[in-house]
Amino acid sequence: MSEMARWLFLCCSLPCVAHKVAVVGAGINGGSAVHFLRQLTDDELVLYEAEREVGGRTYTQRFANVTVDVGGTAIYSKNRYMAGFAKSFGLQPSADDDLNSLIGIWDGQSMRTELNMDSMAMSALKLLFRYGLSPLRVIPVVREAVGHFDGIYDLQGAGQSFETPAELLRALRVFNLTQTSAYDFLAGLGVDDRFVRELVDGASRCNYNQPGTLNAFAELISLAGAGVGGHVFSLANGTQAVARGLARSASRQLLGERVTEVQESNGGYVVISEGKGGIRREQFDGVILATPLELTKIRLPASAKQLGRGREYQTTYTTFVHGMLNKTYFGLETSVAEIPSDIFTTESSTSPFSSYGVHKILADGSVVVKLFSRTQLTDEQLHALFPKVFEVYRYTWKAYPKLQPLPLEQWASFRLGRGLIYTSWLETSASAMEVAAIAGRNGALLMREALQAKTARTARSTRERKEFRGFARGSPRQVHNKPLLIEQAYDYGRVFKKATHLGPVQ
Ligand SMILES: *[C@@H]1O[C@H](CO)[C@@H](O)[C@H](O)[C@H]1NC(C)=O
Ligand SMILES: *[C@@H]1O[C@H](CO)[C@@H](O)[C@H](O)[C@H]1NC(C)=O
Ligand SMILES: *[C@@H]1O[C@H](CO)[C@@H](O)[C@H](O)[C@H]1NC(C)=O
Ligand SMILES: *[C@@H]1O[C@H](CO)[C@@H](O)[C@H](O)[C@H]1NC(C)=O
């Protein structure tokens, strides 16, 4: 028998190997954790979701006979996980052929400029004319940050895990960017104020409903998402289908089951939840919390450490309108088809909405538009923009953290306890579906290590018990090293100490 086969045999003959893991939260984060953990283990994976369907902050609806994403929408072409999931689940990018590629900057009174994202040469000239050399200073920096961030795929592919978000971001050489505001960072680059107030604020208000007070890393990611240095797409059938595809890797999905508490118990954890069947308690070897603790208020064991603090969530009001657009609202002398499909706003804007995005122009000339705002849009405000409203759909989210720089001492750890992993803190740096997928994979890698360590502990204590019995009976002690193999892989230092302690009996 090869070492590996022998180890597998030994391992499978121990009672400890069939582990059970709970993953709390069936968004992209939890789904990614389940998906990647499934690739690493045959353990039983139980996915808890408080809502009655999986998706988390991906949420796809039919509105005005159009498929719309109420939550996470855009996938950046370099997002390897999201693009890969979509491909492997057979999900097609949406064909927005009927929409123009114009981005307008609106200050509530006038359209300050329009940029054609399809014709970069034209836009580049326009950008240079309007903003001087600023774009030339910013574009390489966006590309560089995205390039550094790309390093995560090789690291995770090689099985590298990270104990804290800061460790992960440092390995990618982007941590420092999270500790400075976009305003300060761009001023340091000599970027002109107008560029910041219009394009930078515009992009971050569209992505995060916040201005450039957010950290520079989030800002650079949001500029990438605005099409600077790559292309962006959405899915024809919406992004919630990605979460659904990921959740299929779970052994069991417990929907409508709200986790209220995680307790330490028997070397593992008991997850307590409330659902249709009343209160439920189930024992697990490990738990991955893939939901922001600020929003879920799950009670954790007293031993849970470094939960993080000071992070708030931005409330975003999402409004979908199907109606006839007021052609003069934006002060443009053009047809509806020529009004920019995406309109960003400045922070000083008097506009009631933070961003405006057309989903579809229908045959009768009516439009389906998505608006983000920081307060609920009133019927009067909507009527000024759409004199004729056919249908409205409103949804309020705690959509993403307020992304301003947060001092490192307030950050959480990914590992709250030996087998208790918290993945959601990574979005303190930047919030996007891809970031959630990366956090989920890191959670899976940390969980595998925790389970291997648990196997090693159990093997050790089983052996110690056997050895103790053997000693008591006075029979020769059997010394076998095999279970040490896995320990060595896990933590050589500790194994070495233990092995010395156990030393063969003379
Ligand atoms: C809804 O859209 C489908 C195609 O996506 C079309 O065939 C159908 O006629 C539309 N229904 C209405 C009521 O517009
Ligand atoms: C999208 O959804 C429609 C029905 O809503 C379905 O017929 C189609 O197969 C789906 N396409 C993909 C790529 O998921
Ligand atoms: C990050 O900032 C620290 C302290 O200011 C500095 O020592 C370090 O070199 C910086 N790291 C990178 C990658 O820029
Ligand atoms: C259309 O928008 C313009 C500019 O805001 C406004 O003056 C006008 O009253 C609006 N039209 C309607 C029908 O609300």
From TrEMBL:
Its cofactor is FAD. It comes from the Eukaryota. Residues 120-456 form the Prenylcysteine lyase domain. Residues 1-18 form the signal peptide. The keyword Transport does not apply. It holds the Pfam family Prenylcys_lyase. InterPro entries: FAD/NAD-bd_sf, Prenylcys_lyase, Prenylcysteine_Oxase1. GO terms for molecular function: prenylcysteine oxidase activity. Belongs to the prenylcysteine oxidase family. This is Prenylcysteine lyase domain-containing protein. It comes from Effrenium voratum.
